Every structure is written in structure tokens, then in C-alpha cells.
From TrEMBL:
It comes from Moorena producens PAL-8-15-08-1. GO terms for biological process: fatty acid beta-oxidation. Gene3D superfamilies: 2-enoyl-CoA Hydratase, Chain A, domain 1 (3.90.226.10). Transmembrane segments: none annotated. Signal peptide: none annotated. One of its GO terms (molecular function) is catalytic activity. Belongs to the enoyl-CoA hydratase/isomerase family. This is Enoyl-CoA hydratase. InterPro entries: ClpP/crotonase-like_dom_sf (IPR029045), Enoyl-CoA_hyd/isom_CS (IPR018376), Enoyl-CoA_hydra/iso (IPR001753).
């Protein structure tokens, strides 16, 4: 059996090596992730959270062309409704969103489907001028079920979220900045992302953690994740019944 390409690297960077940098490394497939990469990312994130010296996190994609094209669609055919209920990417992105320190998505090029959902789970997003953003899951008979619906509507308002999710609108970098989807456009995305993380890391860690928890508590709806899970489970099950 041929080995599937792709991995996730974690390394400590920054002026005090207290920034956890995660790199989705599958540039030949637009950094699209598969389950093994999600599991690897989850293990590395858990290790970083357990490391008391870490003060911030950054996620990026390998190369300079694409941040992440989301899940590898070649794996969709074999997914069951149980996979929809227990979507690995949803669990990972929720853990990333709930990391005890600030997180930054350094987005070079497009962030599509699950790639955008990962970016949305970050506390701050910066992108390159060539970046664009899309949630095309409905074209595949699915929904953005790894947090995209929950987070996008709260970030850019309901009308804009509907334009992207229901009508398939692609958003370029300038529009993303105008909408507040990203906070900065940069020609040096990774460097600036690390600098932002360093700025956060220099602040009081306990106050930062408590402030992040307070921000997350605003307009929180505990039911949203369950709706995502059930909807995706039904859609996965439909695919298996049709095939």
C-alpha cells in the first residue's frame, strides 16, 4: 500500500522559544489534511498545552502558495455518520480555539473549507495579498461542520456568513480585511505572525488566559457544535446510502 504524503511539524520559535509553531506540510496537495495529520496535530497541540513555557501558538502551511485547502476529499467516500458526529477536525479546531494562550493563523494564499475553519479557530488571522477565502462544502453535499458556521457568523456578521456558506462567495484579502475576517495583510505573513505571537507572549500569562476565557464566553451557544455534528452525520450517511 502506498504511503500517503503529509505531516504536521511543530517547533518552538520566537525570541524566547516560547511560541509553538505548527506547520501543515503537504504542499503537493495544497496542504490538505487527512486523518493522520489531524491526529498528529492534536498530539502536538496537547504537548504544547502541557508545556508551561509556551505562551502563544502560530499555525501556517508549508510553502508560499496555499495555507490549507481543507480535508482531503478523497477520504470522504468512506466516511459514515459516526465520522460526522465525531469529526476529528472539529475536535482539533475546538481544542485549538480553547488553547490557554493566544493563537495566530499566518495565512499565505488561499484558506479553503477546513483550512478556513482552522483559521477561524485562531484568535487572530493575518494573510498575504494573494489570499482568498472560501467555504465550498455545500458543493460537495456537506456543510462547514468543523466550526465554520459557528465562528464565521459571529466574526463577520450573519449576512456575510450566509453569502459565503449558502451562496458560495469567495472573499479576497482586501474584502477579508474590510470585513474583519483578517486583521492584517502582509508580504511577510509568517514573520509578522510570529511577531504578533511574541507580543502576546510578553504579557502576563494568567491575565491573558483569563481575558481569552472572558472573550470566549461572550455570546456562547453550547448547542451550535451539536447541530454541526448531527447535520454532518446525516450528510455522510446519505452518501453511503446513495453509493
Amino acid at each position: 500500500m502506498a504511503t500517503v504524503s503529509g505531516t504536521v511539524h511543530m517547533k518552538y520559535v520566537g525570541e524566547s522559544d516560547n511560541i509553538a509553531l505548527f506547520i501543515l506540510d503537504r504542499p503537493d496537495k495544497a496542504n490538505a489534511y487527512h486523518n493522520a495529520m489531524i491526529c498528529q496535530f492534536a498530539e502536538q497541540l496537547a504537548a504544547a498545552v502541557a508545556n508551561p513555557s509556551i505562551r502563544a501558538g502560530v499555525v501556517t502551511g508549508a510553502g508560499d502558495r496555499v495555507f490549507c485547502a481543507g480535508a482531503d476529499i478523497s477520504s470522504f467516500a468512506n466516511r459514515s455518520y459516526q465520522d460526522g458526529l465525531n469529526l476529528l477536525s472539529r475536535q482539533l479546531f475546538d481544542n485549538w480555539a480553547n488553547a490557554p494562550w493566544p493563537t495566530v493563523a499566518a495565512i499565505q494564499g488561499p484558506a479553503i473549507a477546513g483550512g478556513l475553519e482552522l483559521a477561524l479557530a485562531s484568535d487572530l488571522r493575518i494573510c498575504s495579498p494573494s489570499s482568498w477565502f472560501s467555504l465550498p462544502e455545500i458543493d460537495l453535499g456537506l456543510i462547514p461542520a468543523a466550526g465554520g458556521i459557528r465562528r464565521l457568523s459571529k466574526l463577520v456578521n450573519e449576512a456575510r456568513a450566509k453569502a459565503m456558506i449558502l451562496f458560495g462567495q469567495k472573499v479576497d484579502s482586501a474584502t477579508a480585511l474590510e470585513w474583519g475576517l483578517v486583521s492584517q495583510i502582509s508580504d511577510r505573513v509568517l514573520e509578522d505572525g510570529i511577531h504578533l505571537a511574541e507580543a502576546a507572549a510578553r504579557r502576563d500569562p494568567l491575565a491573558t488566559r483569563l481575558a481569552k476565557m472572558a472573550l470566549q464566553s461572550v455570546n456562547t451557544s453550547l448547542g451550535d457544535a451539536s447541530v454541526e455534528a448531527v447535520a454532518q452525520a446525516l450528510l455522510y450517511n446519505r452518501k453511503t446510502q446513495v453509493e
